[in-house]
Amino acid sequence: MDKLSGKKIVIAGSRKTEEMSLLIQKQGGIPVVRPLQGFIYLDESAVEKELLFCANNQVDWFVFTTGVGTETLLDAAEKLGVAAILLQKMKDANVAARGYKTINLLKKLEIKPTVIDEDGTIQGLINRLDNCDFANQTVVVQLHGEPQPALIQFLEERGAAVVQLLPYRHIEPESAVLETLCHELTTGSIDAVCFTTAVQVRYLFEYTRRQGISDAVRQAFSTQVKAVAVGKVTAEALRDEGLNQVIVPETERMGAMIIELVKDYSK
């Protein structure tokens, strides 16, 4: 018997929705696509000044949070003609890396991080940096898609001068999609929501706060709708919003997320 038989499963992402829909259908479920992640765009000009600053000044720490974002910065530095200088600065400085993809990229670049957070969460990275001295240190933080105020606040409170590099930026999802999903949540017309990035969680709950329905949406997730996260970072974002019952697979893959949901229903 199909474990998701008749269940309406919301896909909150905008990538690989066809593949995820097929996986849900194979388990007897009904996929519902509600993209909560607005388009992401590359704004290289937004980091030109910061990259030139890094090339021309002393940098004590580099904090890398994503592999793809780090590659993008090096590509942008190449266009500015400072890639070789930036790479040497990275090798000379203390380096902190979040997540295995970032660690693998730095290994290819022959950069050995001082601090490694394999957990992959921002809070995990903060915890690993807690014993480091940042007083009067220039710290360059590579970000991807959205700011990380908790990380920046942590560094600044410890005396760091922080330079943020954020070449990729999100555009908010359509308000009609948010409105529809919130209606489905509060009326119990869906059974689960699969979140594939933390930014989807942020956009959803920012909308609920603007509409004054945060408590109602949290209540829906705690009683009748399952919250499913693709991995630890997304699960962390859901828990930060007060959702304690989060389904998350050991392996951070979309297919594994659906299988974990099936297992939960089979209990």
UniProtKB/TrEMBL annotation:
Keywords: Lyase. The keyword Flavoprotein does not apply. Signal peptide: none annotated. Pfam families: HEM4. Residues 19-258 form the Tetrapyrrole biosynthesis uroporphyrinogen III synthase domain. It is an enzyme of class 4 (lyase). One of its GO terms (molecular function) is uroporphyrinogen-III synthase activity. This is Uroporphyrinogen-III synthase. It comes from Paenibacillus chondroitinus. The lineage of its organism: Bacteria, Bacillati, Bacillota, Bacilli, Bacillales.
